[in-house]
Amino acid sequence: MHSSLTCAMCGTDHAVDQLQNLCTECEKPLLAHYDLDSIKSTFTPDVVRKRTIRSMWKFWDVLPVNDPSEAVSLGEGLTPLLTCNRTGPFEAFENLFIKDESFNPTGSFKARGMSAAVTRAKALGVETVALPSAGNAAGAVTYYSARAGMGCAIFMPEDTPPANIIESVVGNANVNLVNGLISDCGKLVKQGKDRFSWFDLSTLKEPFRIEGKKTMGYELAFDFADHAGTTDLQLPDVILYPTGGGTGLIGMWKAFDEMEKLGWIGSERPRMVVVQAEGCSPIVKAFEAGEEHAPLFKNAATCAAGLRVPIAVGDFLMIRALHESGGTAISISDEALMEGVKEMSACQGVYACPEGGAVWKAAQQLLESGWIKPEEKVVLFNTGTGLKYNHLFSVDGLPVIDHNDPTCLDRLS
Ligand SMILES: *Cc1c(COP(=O)(O)O)cnc(C)c1O
């Protein structure tokens, strides 16, 4: 259980035993801190390995519970780290990996964050949660709140992928479509929350979604130890992360820091790479301009729904992680990222989401420019399943075989 909640910007302490959103002083995100010294002797890599918990709650000591039985869980986390085949365009990479988050409940890594946030909200007596979503957060919040017996109000841009909308409607969430972007949806949540007694679960405006997502950082350390056949935890050289609100990136960065304080790893860190879509790349733009904050990206447009986040309250935390890690930021066109989806599907057997396609194309570009070396250990985050984006492909015109025609197979190659 966390021992403090402090503002990532001004450091102001906030009470741990009550509901919190942004810092009441400066409206920046709050981060949870744990008394790592006091759990050091009981929370060790060996202890974690021996646990039989089959979810991210294996790391419950650094999550918002006193006991793992308190978790609202659907089996999130513990996703596979796949070694990439060296075929076709992947050939030049000697050590390329996919952390395949499509295995999560509701098909994306949003499950990790929502499991932690709903767990904490439930413990503090919340009856109804609300949030804006550009896609996968909607499904995750719908099913975790259902599991917890809570109500849930969702605000989504009207052009959110149909699979995301259907998933939430079936799960009996209160689904509201909005003629705007996720930032407009966020404003509606803010306006309605007192009136309807909602607890706001917006990305980084709530301190525990990031705690759930940080478990990706913990898992990578175990995954790479397993891969190397050792018990010594280790991290890759480069992590490419498809970045919207940045929860996962900031979360992993926090996890590495915690693991160092626990004595699990040393001071070396992966270079973190923010990957965005050309049509919505506020962090790339700010990073390139040497700014600490990223203003609203106008006319944000991309088919990678998870990347359509034109303004992020955690901008400065992402940009800090990029600087501290010696990382970089890169944007990919929609055309290229869809090509990336097809390449990951055909060469790796992973039906990637467009966001996953984007990180693969970013890795390719960074290898070509020499920023990534062929032998480096590089992780691509496939953050969700391609199945939620079936609407982006058309199979019209696929011929139908007449099985009554005895020559019907003659035309096949
Ligand atoms: C939400 C989402 C992202 C962006 O995640 P953040 O941690 O908010 O930056 C990337 N990919 C997919 C599939 C998503 O659903």
Kindly describe this structure.
This protein is of the alpha/beta class. The chain has helices at residues 36-39, 45-50, 110-123, 136-148, 162-170, 182-196, 209-228, 247-261, 282-288, 315-325, 334-348, 354-368, and strands at residues 4-7, 13-14, 30-33, 81-83, 96-100, 128-132, 151-157, 174-178, 199-200, 238-242, 271-277, 328-332, 378-382. Strand 6, helix 4 (136-148) and strand 7 form a beta-alpha-beta unit. The radius of gyration is 21 Å and the shape is globular. The mean pLDDT is 96. Pyridoxal-5'-phosphate is lined by residues 108, 110, 135-136, 203, 242-248, 306, 353, 355, 383-384.
List keywords for this structure.
four-stranded parallel β-sheet, alpha/beta, 13 strands, 12 helices, 413 residues, six-stranded mixed β-sheet, binds pyridoxal-5'-phosphate
